[in-house]
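Take a record.
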Amino acid sequence: MSALPSAAPASAAQSAVNAVSRYLSLDVLRGLTVALMIIVNTPGDWNTVFAPLLHAQWHGFTPTDWVFPTFLFVVGNALSFAQPKYARLGQGAVLAKVGRRSAIIFLLGFLLFWFPFVAVDGAGNWSLIPLSGTRVPGVLQRIALCFGLASLILYFWKEKGALAYCVLALLGYWLMLALGGDYTLAGNAAGKADLWLLGERHLYRGEGLPFDPEGLLGTLPATVNVIAGYFTGRLILAQGANYETLAKLMMAGVLCVGVALCWDMVLPINKKLWTSSYALYTVGLDLLVLPLLIYLIEMRGRRRWTYFFEVFGKNTLFIYLLSELAVVILVKTKAGNGNGYDWLYAHTFQALAPPKVASLLFAVTFMLACWAVGYLMDRRRIYIKV
């Protein structure tokens, strides 16, 4: 593939075709986020992890807090290619397509929390794990809801309506947080809403109390990340990958980061609450990172290193599900005096290096094992799409 020309193709249709085949940088960014998601989710020992590979405890920001919103941003990039096709479909077909995809992704996330579906007592008796204690929100669930909401907003309200939504969602969510409680773990409005709507047994309890970082209210500002990715993709499709386009994206990125840092003084940047300042800050970072990838890959033709991330980008959902499922199976498997996950770490990496390095080596190896599965699938041209 050659570098993209600075001039737009002769027709919008041809532009879309060319862009789909040429914008490798979007696949690389998607693959990069999946690789990082697996690494940060699978340390050998959660008590010995380098600080940048942990989420901020509450207010604040670490590199790990950039990963999930970037994945949503890339979902929006992909939507910029798909949305013009929706215009040629009837309303019923669009609703069915978007609803089906959103429902499948949401269900996969929910089933992942319910897995292995059955429990065995000391006497060897099997029983179905009750749904009453299964977590409802989650990473895949948020992706499903944000994708569905963004798709419908763009289809029915068009781009002006989507821009209006972004402004209203960011300001409206700020108002909800400000009027509905405070910005603490115990007193925030998002947590109260989830408790009321879902009940504490359906929420994440890893924070020491029932609070879900992928809760329902946070979907509103998180959808802004998807819509921002959509507008970024549309700009690239319309103007091509040239210095002017990259400059526009980077200036927008600097503006978003600047506004977010100012906003942080009254509404803290907080990933677990997905505050409006956090959404804007991560959009700004993505608008700075993506142009760099486009410059290196599309404009400079530096593609020798990209295949590793392309593998993740071609079977994104499957590889992410595989990584999560493998963790669940290892944790549920008895080994020695503990579970299979801890046993595997203790007998493979713990003695190889200092604790934090060993923990990171385990996570990287786990990620590479997932990549190997993706590589074999790519070699056999097996691509699982929803």
Observations:
- The chain has one domain: 12-379.
- The beta strands are 118-120, 126-128, 334-335, 338-339.
- Confidence is low (pLDDT under 50) at residues 1-21.
- The first helix runs from residue 12 to 22.
